[in-house]
Design a protein that fits this description.
56 residues, mainly alpha
């Protein structure tokens, strides 16, 4: 990605995107690993059995 332009050359769309990304990064992240991740993986596996078109 090219370097960010100075604020004076930033378009309104670029500014909105930068602010949106900053807001997303500031949100708390879900826990990684441990019991939570195992529960999520188990839930994904059990629900996919009823969707044969999702498998290869």
């Amino acid at each position: 990605m090219p370097d960010d332009p100075p604020a004076s050359e930033e378009t309104p769309i670029q500014r909105a995107l930068r602010l949106k990304k900053a807001a997303i990064d500031a949100r708390p992240k879900p826990p990684r690993g441990g019991k939570f991740q195992r529960e999520q993986a188990a839930a994904a596996r059990s629900s996919s059995k009823s969707k044969p078109w999702m498998s290869r």
